[in-house]
Amino acid sequence: MKRSEINSAIRRAEKTLAQHSWAMPDFASWSTDDHKAHAARSEWLRDRQIGWDVTDFGSGEFARRGLVLFCTRNGIFDGQGERPYAEKLLFVEVGQETPFHAHRMKLEDIIVRGGGTLCVEFTPEGAQTPLSGEPVGDIIRIDGEEVPAYGRVHRLHAGQGITVPRGMQHRFWGEDAPVFLAEVSQCNDDRNDNFFLEPIGRFSDVEEDEAAYRPLWNEGGGK
């Protein structure tokens, strides 16, 4: 991705946050210089993968296949004294797909906080055995109601949430308007706990065509 695309995507996400009066922590607006000025704190955040994240999953077509995220809190999986939970905010455009992927460690709820309709689809193909050893199964829950996972597109509206079981391949996209999501989950590890159905990457190579507006979480650490 070009840095200019990343910058524009973050600016759009910030407008969404303002529209929903969603307050953010101070480090959400840090510049590269701010990360350097708060090097120890920045490194602590980076080690826990906290901050901005923009990806096109290596597609080169961010509008078709991509995602903007901001991780507000997280721990280190199996780390002594670490938080075992995570919270993220996600910003999904119309027709913009997050491709099929599964998590072996993480059980998550995806909640529509505002905007349009979120479409979620599951497939039994490529299921991953959870680290807990539990079976993947074929049932999901939408706000506590058991629903067959496969063979349909699940459409969620503002206020609704879906529980994604460990190991189950899922994808999602916006249908009729941009969607503002929250994710609450067990500890999140985007380096090691994303298993894509296709041979694609979680992170994008960045072409530096302009200066970074907000550094991504893996660009922090006071560097």
Automatic annotation (TrEMBL):
Domain of life assignment: Bacteria
Keywords: Carbohydrate metabolism, Isomerase, Manganese, Metal-binding
Catalytic activity: D-lyxose = D-xylulose
A GO term for molecular function: metal ion binding
Keyword Metal-binding tagged: yes
Any Pfam family hit: Lyx_isomer
Cofactors (names): Mn(2+)
Keyword tRNA processing: no
Family designation: Belongs to the D-lyxose ketol-isomerase family.
Protein name (record): D-lyxose ketol-isomerase
